[in-house]
Amino acid sequence: MQDEIDLANEDEDAEEKRERLMNYLTKLNQMKRRLYKMMANSSSMNTALQEIKSYSAPPPLVLRVIVALLIVVGIPNFEVYLGDDLLEWPEDTLKLWKFTRANMQLSQRHPQNIFRMLSKATKGQAHADVKRKMVCIVAAEKIMEGADREAVHHASSVAASLLDWIQVGIKQAYAEIELADLDCEMEEETQSYGNGNGNNDYE
Predict the structure, then answer these.
(1) pLDDT band, residue 10 (cuts 50/70/90)
(2) At a CB cut-off of 8 Å and minimum separation 6, what does 77 contact?
(3) Which of 84, 88, 149, 171 has the most CB atoms lying inside 10 A of its own CB?
(4) Per residue in 19-57, pLDDT tens?
């Protein structure tokens, strides 16, 4: 998910790279919030999700989108069905769908209402632990690997909207990791010079 990030100038310095990443993250955050608002304000969204939840077996792509979504927004215990790293997609998905459907909370009073969880995730509040967040992001990326948006839209327009939000969130997470790594490198370089380990032009 490094498409825009890789458009960097090879000659850019660390500060320029940091500024580019910050601008990219701002754009992704705005896009993610806009997608959330569109879904939250859609009068047909809840009805469409109710319809998906009523399926005894949803279309495979729809199932993948809903599972990826619930993992990203922080619904726990998918390890029971997908393994500890959340990467083992089962051949028989009936039990996985039953668990997923049970966790598609659409009641506004439920603490894990799907729109409430989406709102928290949009604000970056879905996972307190960064390592856990990246496990979920990598899992969602793997689950949706090769998924064609047009095919998803053909199966469910709602699932396509959710896929858009998921994909922006994946890009955002990778950009945040790259920015954090860059900040660490810059801090180490600053400390190195501060300790007198930089090049001395006056030897």
Answers:
(1) low
(2) 99
(3) 171
(4) 999 999 999 999 999 999 999 999 899 999 999 999 999
SS3 content of the chain, % helix, strand, coil (to 5): 65, 0, 35
Tokens of 83: 């393994």
Distance CA 197, CA 190 (A): 10
Residue type, 98: K
Q: What is the spatial distance between Cα 196 and Cα 81, in angstroms, rounded to a whole number?
A: 54
As a whole number of angstroms, the distance between CA 109 and CA 115 comes to 11
Show Cβ contacts of residue 170 under 8 Å, excluding neighbours closer than 6 positions: 1, 137, 140, 141
Distance CA 72, CA 34 (A): 18
In whole angstroms, what is the distance from residue 4 CA to residue 21 CA? Answer: 10
Q: Which residue has the tokens 């498409």?
A: 3
203 pLDDT above the threshold of 70? no
Bridge partners of 105?
113
**Average pLDDT of the chain, as a whole number:** 90
